[in-house]
Amino acid sequence: MKKLIYHIKGCLVLALLAAVVVMQPGCKKDASPSKGTPVITAIRNYVAHPGDSLLSSVGTGQWVVISGKNLKGALAINFDGVKGSFNDAWFSDTSAIVLIPAVIAFPSVPSDKLNTIQYVTNHGQTTFSFPIVAPAPTITGVSNEDANPGDSVKINGLSFFFIKSVTYAGINITSYKSSNDGTSISLAVPAGVTQTGGIVSVTTKSGSATSVYKVHDFVTGVLNNYDNVNNFSWGSGTSNSSAAYPGNNGYYGLLQSTNISAGDGSWWNGGRSINTNGAQWVPKTSLKDTVDHYALKFEVSVTTPWSAGAIQIVKDYSWTYSAIYRPWKNANGSTMQFTTKGWQTVTIPLSEFRTNNGTGNPPGSLTDLLGAEGAGAINVTFINDGTTTIKTSEIAVDNIRVVRIK
């Protein structure tokens, strides 16, 4: 959501000019404040399209241009009663660019607010009747792609409303619960999942979404899982204790550290790293795909609170590109004590591998990152990139794999 907002902020000038020039060629931006009651006459695409860009309906997460008059001085623009995002400084008296909320809980919208756009200004307000429809669902991930049968998992995404069917690991699911805001579906992993797994799909009245990758797939793209694909070479400890890390699926690796000094990135020390033999990251025939088509995935379980240090991931002991996993630090810079309830899946797009210890530029191609063969060892290391000593740390890691996500 934040990435979208940051992108759109940079495009607001272009979008407004496009709206004004293409949609209302004769209008000028009025520097004086509006005085009359706002009036909405039409809803249009925010980027000019060939031909008429007039819309007959809109969906969540969509940028639109509201056309009308007396639109300056906006205080709130609500879609089905939920606030949209906008910057009134870029509005003209006759055009307003707004982002429809990404999440609208359609089943719980009061009937008097359904299919309405409420436009509130400092000089009046109006309500415009307009179809606001739930778009097709989107799957963004699964909480634990390798959970055991009977364990609870969540399918995460958007627009899980008016669900008609759910498939998990290729098996039809009849018992599930969707969240009120349509961002997740909770279910128990069905019996009968196989070692090659299957897709996840959700079908609603508005359309369908299907994962590109399979869940419970212990074969495709697996670099190391300590069991049927065991490329582990040296480094970390291993265990299969269900008492220490419940919900495990066979053996797993343990990144264990004590008294790590500030700035210590000594990956070769003790049990702080997982180092494998060579394995195929991406099929050689697929190396012409763009970098963001693939992601590194693994499961983690963290029972000891984690609030300092990071997991650094590289290929073949080469630090040209590396990925950093630091879940205790939020995008806004705030921190927390990170633990998990059982195992959870981590997804790191290969486009997140970067130069300068994970802070620089991404690779330009899969070959830049993986070499001409698309194969090699993987090195997963716990480092202290902070300013104080880390007294103790223990993180369980399993099922290291690279899979297509697009």
Describe this structure in words.
It is a single chain. By secondary structure, this protein is mainly β. It has 3 domains: 2-133, Sandwich (Immunoglobulin-like), CATH 2.60.40.10; 138-216, Immunoglobulins (Immunoglobulin-like); 219-404, Jelly Rolls (Sandwich). It contains 3 helices and 33 strands. Strands 21, 23, 24, 27, 30 and 33 form a 6-stranded antiparallel sheet that branches. A hairpin with an 8-residue loop joins strand 6 and strand 7 (95-99). The longest helix has 22 residues, at 2-23. It is globular and about 75 Å long. The two termini are 19 Å apart. Residues 1-31 have low confidence and may be disordered.
Q: Indicate the radius of gyration in whole angstroms.
A: 25 Å
Instruction: Name the shape in a single word.
Output: globular
* Overall pLDDT score: 89
Helix content: under 10%
Structural class assignment: mainly beta
The total of beta strands comes to: 33
Q: Keywords, please?
A:
mainly beta; 5-stranded antiparallel sheet; Immunoglobulin-like; 33 strands; Jelly Rolls; 406 residues; 6-stranded antiparallel sheet
Give a short synopsis of this structure.
The chain has 406 residues and is mainly beta.
